[in-house]
Amino acid sequence: MPTFEQVFTEFRGMNRRTDRLNSPTDFVYDCLNGFTLKDFKGSNLGVTFQREGSEKFNDVQLDADYGATKKIKVLFEAKWDGGGTDIIVRAGTAWGKFDGVDTFDSIITGRADDVVGQALMYKNELIMLDGGVPQKATAAYSVSALSSDSNMPQDATSGWVHRNKLWLNSPSTPMMAYFSKTNNANGATAWTGATDAGTLDLSTVLPEGDTILGYRTYGGRDSGLIAIICRKYTVIYSAGANVYDFTFVQYFPTTCISIKAADYVGKDIVYPSTNNLTSLFSSANNDELDVKSLSHFIEPYYRQLISTVSNTDLLSGAFDKRMNFYYLNLPITNNFQTLVYSVDAGNFVGRFTYPFNIYSMLARINGDILVGDEDGYVRKINTGSNDDGTAISFKLAMPALYFKKPQNYKKPHTIEALIQATKTLTLNIDYWYGLDSLSSDKITKSLIVEASSSLWDEALWDVAYWDTQGNEIVHTSDILGRGRMMFIEFRQNTLDARIIIPWFLVRGIMEGVN
Questions:
Q1: What is the rounded CA–CA span in Å between residue 445 and residue 429?
Q2: 3-class SS at 197?
């Protein structure tokens, strides 16, 4: 009988456009608590990594009012003109700041319970927005209302700084964008519009009703363009020679479902919509604007997940500049998970789950990624080897493998893989044949992987590419069953163990077509 050997080395990320049968073999069907990292040697190959762990940032929760929820809905890093930074949270009925040791101390209490808001900096003051009268805090944390001007929105939930102005929304007037006087948002007449304060009424440009969710400066920090992001549309205005002169440029349907998840990826702005992960990007000239999807490889899967989110306002996201990853957290009841998008791969390359539920995300100035959970704790992710003592369950699932001849029956007999592990562990290889069986006829092979001397990303460049020093080639040569297609999954959940898979291969016998 003729034999075959197929090597899987590329791992270009996730592909679930319709189902696992349509996923090419250089993609994966699912990567749980792992991700594909593109080989920076220029081979255009991918290596699958198990994610790192997470650890608590604080031991004592924010001291909110009695009976209030502990869910951290806002997570922000305040940077003061003096050079210091503070971690700011909004949970329950209070705003608080990290004391630098282990505790979040209250800045202000008595606010509405369990709301979604936003914090930002303006003229060396911390601005706190949560649906009530906007509040401000000095560097000494003296707190007061932002302004006594009655024309200031009294119920703002989102804001932005653009062209020396503070911009606010107002849920009570959902299509009106408010901007303060230049360099002045807290004066007694800062919002009256008598000079250069004012409003932009989107009802004059949009064909139907909408709700402003928030704002972002578009095209870089020196750009005059401001993106007003609404539930149905994104509207672009351009500032003129005067900082209070704004000209309508363009609008396009984008259906933003959470301003909490909007973040910059370079000069681009990304956020989740009902259909895809939306990317706003511009051409090099004339402020020509366009919109594209970053989720086209997994759009049906994406839409399926989004449809199960009961409150899309709670979606959060952050861009990890160290990894060049954008994380999108989906608060699905009993199934919170984070999708991982790689700018380098141009694709979603994995998904993370944690033994806690995430309600906010923050990319710190120093590069750390922090998340706020439902129990009042802030946690740093991508650190350590476990989640507060809980083992990290890893799975790499391949699509249907036809081994180049879908019309032929195949009899696989060997699975071999190059594995690196930080700790001796049991690697489980699950496999089965055919659609009818799926996992009902699953067979599991359990192999012992000895601890490597060091991880791939630390030791690879000290040894030859295929040298197994510091690595281990594992294989099993007693594969059972036959079929026209084969499904394979790798998984492990040993405490404090992390694995890396650069490649695996399958050998077998090619049979007939009957």
A1: 5
A2: coil
Give the whole-angstrom CA distance, residue 428 versus residue 417.
Answer: 12
- Spatial neighbors of 143 by CB under 8 A, at least 6 apart, are 107, 108, 135, 136, 137
Domain spans in the chain, listed from the N-terminal domain onward = 3-52+394-510
- CA dist 242 and 249 (Å) reads 16
Mean pLDDT of the chain: 90
Could you report the per-residue pLDDT of 287-313, keeping only the tens digit for each?
A: 567 889 999 999 999 999 999 999 999
Between β-strands 198-201 and 176-179, what pairing exists: parallel, antiparallel or unpaired?
Answer: antiparallel
The span from the CA of 166 to the CA of 192, in Å, is 13
State the pLDDT confidence band at 219, using cuts at 50, 70 and 90: confident
Closest CA to 456 of 447, 469, 442, 439: 469
Cα distances from 155 to residues 87, 93, 109, 186, 248, in angstroms, run: 24, 15, 17, 16, 26
Residues 6+ apart with CB under 8 A from 70: 61, 62, 64, 91, 92, 374, 375, 376
User: For domain 3-52+394-510, which CATH number applies: 2.60.120.260, 3.30.70.920, 3.30.450.20, 1.10.287.3510?
Assistant: 2.60.120.260
Which residue matches tokens 């071999």?
416
Tokens 């209250």, residue located: 106
458: Cα within 13 Å, side-chain hemisphere: 10
Question: What pTM does this model have?
Answer: 0.94
Residue 463: pLDDT above 50?
no
Report helix, strand or coil for 406: coil
* Mean pLDDT, residues 111-128 taken together: 96
Sign of the dihedral through C-alpha 149, 150, 155, 158: negative
